[in-house]
Specification:
Shape: globular
Strand content: 15-25%
Oligomer: single chain
CATH topology of one domain: Enolase-like, domain 1
CATH architecture of one domain: 2-Layer Sandwich
CATH superfamily of one domain: CO dehydrogenase flavoprotein, C-terminal domain
Bound molecules: flavin-adenine dinucleotide
Distance between the termini: 45 Å
Order of helices and strands: EHEHEEEHHHHHHEEHEEEEEHH
Largest sheet: 5 strands, antiparallel
Helix content: 25-40%
Length: 263
């Protein structure tokens, strides 16, 4: 790891100033992805701006939406009693991320800003039609995720919270990598009454919506309804863990499991 200057501002305005000034600087939340990349020499920032000093943590359940602050750890999301009542599938998802160490340090903000193609949260944000709040603007999930480790965030833009509309029913199921627990395929289904959304992670180079499933589920929100709905193999990932064909098959299996688990 190369040398770097470390900053831990207590105010968002100070974090904004430092990251704007330090052109080779990076933001850090839980460090669960950033630090390993620095240790491996894949990143050598001049400055690290640690956002954990902002204390931007918390989950607020309102009548029609849940707001989760960006600094909230996966463990805090998983154990939130209020969230388990409002969107139980989101608490389940957070509880299946990585291992206890990763869950007690890794954050919602860091996970979505990193946008790993096998990360769990992007599937939930897409299916729940979430809105990402930054220090500059509000971005719809459909416009936020831009493929392989890419988002619509501009340099130095800070994710501060995520708004999750509360669905009528939602469920999540993932076929996890046995070592890292990242999703080989993860499917999040959400019935919003007026529409159904299906978010798929792990299968492609970035999170996507399975629109054919959304159409049939809008008429019949059940596991049987997606039987026989195929996922195109073309753009799916192929690696030592699974072929593109197997991932396409897993999208169907995980969708059925998520629908059976939906609450
Ligand atoms: C062994 C292991 C297993 C894992 N398994 C899983 C898994 O099963 N599922 C899963 O989803 N994830 C998994 N992860 C990743 C984990 O969830 C990380 O916590 C997450 O990817 C990054 O969150 P962080 O808070 O640690 O971010 P950091 O590592 O601090 O930052 C990640 C990136 O986001 C940027 N960033 C951080 N915070 C913000 C912000 N507020 N605004 C803008 N940019 C920001 C940073 O500059 C950096 O580029 C695993 C990680 C490890 C090490």
């Amino acid at each position: 790891m190369e040398n770097f200057d470390y900053h831990r501002p207590a105010k968002l305005a100070d974090a904004e100033k430092i990251i704007a000034k330090q052109k080779e600087g990076v933001l850090m939340s839980g460090g669960m992805t950033l630090l390993p990349t620095m240790k491996q020499g894949l990143a050598a920032p001049s400055d690290v701006v640690d956002l954990s000093g902002l204390g931007n943590v918390g989950i607020k359940v309102m009548k029609t939406k849940v707001t989760i602050k960006a600094g909230t750890t996966h463990a805090e999301v998983a154990k939130s009693g209020d969230l388990k009542k409002a969107i139980p599938a989101l608490a389940v998802l957070a509880g299946e991320i990585g291992d206890p160490h990763v869950r007690h340090k890794g954050t919602l903000g860091g996970s979505i800003a990193n946008n790993d193609p096998a990360a769990d949260y992007p599937a939930a944000l897409m299916a729940l039609d979430a809105t990402i709040i930054t220090n500059k603007r509000a971005i719809a999930a459909d416009k936020f995720f831009k493929g392989l480790f890419e988002t619509s965030l501009r340099r130095g833009e800070i994710v501060t919270a995520v708004d999750f509309p509360i669905p009528e029913k939602a469920g999540y199921a993932k076929f996890a990598n046995p070592a890292s627990r990242y999703a080989i395929v993860g499917v999040f289904v959400a019935n919003h009454g007026k529409a159904v959304r299906v978010g798929v992670t792990g299968a492609g180079p970035g999170v996507f919506r399975q629109k054919a499933m959304e159409r049939v589920l809008a008429k019949d929100f059940s596991a049987d309804a997606v039987a026989g709905i195929a996922t195109k193999v073309d753009d799916l990932n192929e690696d030592m863990h699974a072929s593109a064909e197997y991932r396409a098959h897993l999208v169907g299996v995980m969708a059925k499991r998520a629908l059976k688990a939906a609450k």
